[in-house]
Amino acid sequence: MPVRWPIPRERYRFWVDAILMVLILGFILCFFDLHHLFSKTISAGGDTASHYYTAQYLRDYLLPKFKISGWCPGNLAGFPMLQNYFPLPFVLMVLGSWIIPLQISFKIVSVLGIFLLPVCTYGMFRTMKQPFPIPIVGAGLSLLFLFNQGNSMWGGNIPSTLAGEFCYSIGFSLTVLWLGLLYRTIQENRPVTACTVLLAVIGFCHGYTLLCAGFFSLFFLTIPGQYGSHLKKLILIHGSAILIMAFWLLPLLANLPHTTKFNMVWLFYTSHQMAKEVFPVIFWPAIAMTIGYSLRFMIQKRQNPGILFQTPFPFIWFMILISLGLYFLGYRIGVVDIRFLPFMQFFLVVSGAMLIHIARLPQVVQILCSGILVILTLLWVDSRESYIQHWIRFNTSGFEQKPLWPVFSAVNRSLAGSFQDPRVVYEHSMIHDRAGTTRAFESLPLFSGRATLEGVYIQASLSDPFIFYVQSELSHSPSTPIPDYSYSRYDLTRGIEHLRLFNVRDYVVVEEKTRERVKADPNFETIFESMPYTVFRLKQGDFRYVEPVRFRPVVMKTDNWKAVSYRWFRLADLSVPLVFKDDLDEIDRPWFIDSPDSDILNLPHESIPGVAPVKETVREEEIIIEGATIGQPLLVKMSYHPNWKVAGADRIYLASPAFMLVIPHSATVRLRYSGSWPETAGLILSVLIVILSILFHIQPFHCLRNGVERIYDSLGVRLSLVALTVILVFTGYHLMTGFSDSPQVLFQKGLVDYRRKDYNAARNRFWAIMSQYPQTLPSDQAGFHYGLCFYLEKDWQNTIQAMNMLITDYPDSPKVSEALYHIGICHRHMGQRNVAETIFQKIVREFPRDIWAQYSQDRLREMSPS
Prior knowledge:
With 866 residues, this protein is an alpha+beta fold. 53% of the residues lie in helices and 8% in strands. The protein has 34 helices and 17 strands. The strands form 5 sheets. Strands 3-4-6-5 form a 4-stranded mixed beta sheet, sandwiched between helices. A 4-stranded antiparallel beta sheet has the order 7-13-16-15, with no helix packed on it. Strand 15 and strand 16 form a beta hairpin. Helix 3 packs across helix 5, helix 7 runs parallel beside helix 18 and helix 29 runs antiparallel to helix 30 (779-792). The protein is globular.
């Protein structure tokens, strides 16, 4: 006898869904300490802590000027704040700060994506018209993805969000909802307005989620007989969303050449590591359900081939495969490959919910099963969680609750000032984590008002590679975050030159061995000390952001100015600046040396007479220079960007390392950061699409819309098909012919050959890095292992030659002392005792604190007469 329902089934299901959703969200909330979440403290932890200054800068400086992007001199030698990062979450934080303190608003928005994901997963399945209880079970299964502790950098899960990827998390959740909305919009031929607006919102949250949304939507072009109508919808949705974003997106794209490229390969060193991180144990029950449904679906497809496009399951598998494909293509297309894998993981997990409908159980049983499955999911997640709750408490309790807060705040008070003051640099160390994050001193502009070199947005400034090189010179454990550049060993002498170049006066030290070295250096004095921090100040130097150039700049005409400038910064005479310009105009020739064949290590020195200091005033988006000598080149130690405009000089030149240089024609020179044509054009396009969207929905303008549609129907599909074909062919050809392994992958493959004792194969890989990627992160390591291959074959002469090549090309490498040691050993094996002794003595003299100095002393004792 069928069950008689006292209330309508749909309403009953609604209440079941509502109760279970409250249970799911309540479970997440249990991991938060509400006292900390709603306390007026500044969020700590990972990159999250550094993002708070962005929200405050947006609130206090940019929005009052009716801008969401503008120049910030506080980090990275100056960079365009929120031009290369995603503004919407920060705008929400500022809007929230009108009601509650910014500190609390920041915390709420930074964890918003965590709470959105179950809701958006439910919304995706509902908009895909999946029957009860699939949506609520899918929402429950999304917790398996959220609480995955296998990584904290990929994006989407709670650890990644806590590490600072909260913009990605919000974009990820909204993308999940958008995919369901798109599915219904296409399948039922609905209006595209909601899809368009939500896609623009996703783009304002994070670029990778926008990219994935675009690629995933290509599924609808594979449906037979629907190509034209579906293409029309997709062009309208994506085109309109891009135009809505144009006021922010166009400047971002136009200024990409003036950023630092950051694309990396995420390395899995073993198959076990890959399986553990990509398919962690917490996923296994849901993946088993997905596999079960997949097998069932394949059986159904064989019985009824027409089912393929009648259910969203093929769409879900399309997204899984596209995510995997984008991961493998990531490095080739110039993005971070690992950012795409979270979508594959997510859909593998939540699509297991579709298995519930297969059973075709009675309604009461389905309700019971849904409740049981959600509860079992919560219990399973709780049993697998080990550190997330602690990390949440660490972040939300804020800087003010950390053990080093009293000392950290005292350091900031000792450095208090403004952007007019010289910059501050600090030693990278894990000890900073006790102050709130290893990146705590990136927030110096927030806590002290002073500018520092490092910053969280490491792609936003042309100065980034040089800044992190300075960090490697001044830190015993540097972070080396940009894989396209090599770094230095600890080198205080050369580091001081770079500090003066960047107008850095103060140096915050935290490690004891670093403190000992700096205290022994006569160039520094101690201005503050409270363990574990010591603040040192350079004693001598005319610390200015605008410095008259003492030697005529040398013009470099090159297609790869970044590589030339980086080599200059590492190895050359910093007193002779380089100017990067394709052609010299007549107005330029009197001021520069046109020497296209100049050796970067032996630049011509032509003194400029009458060098005189100038008076400078540095503000957020303005630099005023007074007392300038007409015709005297001035180096402005602020990152170059084309939005800087100048009055009192003809133009701004790009000068080494990545600064600006001007030739005054007036005693007063004013540099001002302002918008350019991409901002204007983008704003016009955004306003135009909004106006057109409104007009097309007004009755008198329907004829205009119909005319546009007729033109598209007659020409648009054909032209779009041709354009799509050309793009696919060109892209495929480029990917197949224009790609080689990243230097990191080549190095790992070389190490595999090296460990197998296939020294010839290893040498070939190491040589490929040295010749094709000579300034990347593994280049000096590759050069050293290249020599080791000869060494292990007892080919002493080639070992000496290879190690000398390493020392010549990378005299700043941490491997220099070890290379010298192997050269000494080779000479010893060759019977050249005196040469070996000289080399070992050199190591002891030049690298006294190095382990290879100790080994060299041992060899010297062995070689000394008894």
